[in-house]
Fold glycogenin glucosyltransferase.
Amino acid sequence: MSVTDQAFVTLATDDVYCQGALVLGQSLRNHKTSRKLAVLITPEVSSGMRSVLSSVFDDVIEVDVLDSADSVHLALMQRPELGVTFTKLHCWTLTHYSKCVFMDADTLVLCNVDELFDREEFSAAPDSGWPDCFNSGVFVFRPSLKTHNLLLQFAAKHGSFDGGDQGLLNSFFSNWATADIGKHLPFLYNLSSSSVYTYVPAFNHFGRNAKVVHFLGATKPWNYKYNPQTKSVMQDGTTSGSFHQLSFLALWWNIYSASILPLLEKLQKMEETESEECKHIFNGVEVTLKKVSPYAASSLQKPELPEQTNEVNPTACSPEELTFKANEVARSVSELSIHFKPAKPTPEDERRKWEEGRMDYMGKDAFEHIKKKLDAFLH
Ligand SMILES: O=c1ccn([C@@H]2O[C@H](COP(=O)(O)OP(=O)(O)O[C@H]3O[C@H](CO)[C@@H](O)[C@H](O)[C@H]3O)[C@@H](O)[C@H]2O)c(=O)[nH]1
Ligand SMILES: [Mn+2]
């Protein structure tokens, strides 16, 4: 049975966060949600990524980074740093749904969580850093233009005590901590991956019942490297994590490599280059999937030669044969990582930018360039 007037909603303001949104959407599909999946995007998201999003989400909705809700708009323009934060507030405008569950693009469901729709606005789980505040990565809400407007007005007047949507929403729904325990979602619906080590005994006792993992903080799953052969996340000097954190990260990457990569590849044929890099060049970014030996790139231990490939006892091999075998292993062990580089936008993206009034006056749309084009056209 499907409930078509209720939806899980997420947000991605660029092609990088789209990777997270896609994995979240796929995890909800894998666990057979009966609700619709909606994603809010901003004009920056490339058309290539939009088409990939639409194969996972029922609803891909473009919103402005800053809303132009008249008087509020002017006040907000003085606070451009709050822009991305306010994009999340656009979820209240989705009035073709009666009730929604918002989930950050850096969350992942571990099982079906449709029972969240039994809760009322505003339900959320405690924040592990300050449990009298809720974390705004997972919450139940009712779309309403009235609430949306009140939120924007409140934001313009009071700003946000943490500069983000979480501070703002906590001030707005300020009685969350005390008024109604029914609006406290269990922490298991928004388990921050860092709390795995801040309270180890609790994690060991309750962790197996986790329903939603939230990769909150500066380093997101897509910043790690992944080894598809061992199905594990690779650690180098810049990343670290406990066993359980690494397992959650590996789960994210398993979904990414099994379900999202094929969608990206369908969009663009994989290009094998001599440096063994597969590049997917989208309109806005370049996604590079490096195929390199992990022990060449990092301080990782060189793996043992797999036994089953050695019909002959390796000690009986000549040094040349051994080197050859080691190279073969090096080639077969690959590393997946995502690199985001601004790539050349397609003519379609360029036209959309012009139509939306977002010209690059300082760069390629500078007068001298336009003049050159005109001159070339006239001569
Ligand atoms: O450039 C950005 C930044 C954020 N987002 C979206 O906004 C969400 C929140 O940002 P995130 O990077 O996930 O923040 P957190 O590390 O989770 O930090 C906390 O602080 C944020 C700001 O207050 C809250 O939104 C989060 O829910 C809260 O967990 C993301 O998941 C995305 O859905 C974008 O689309 N583009
Ligand atoms: Mn988050």
Observations:
- The chain has a mean pLDDT of 79.
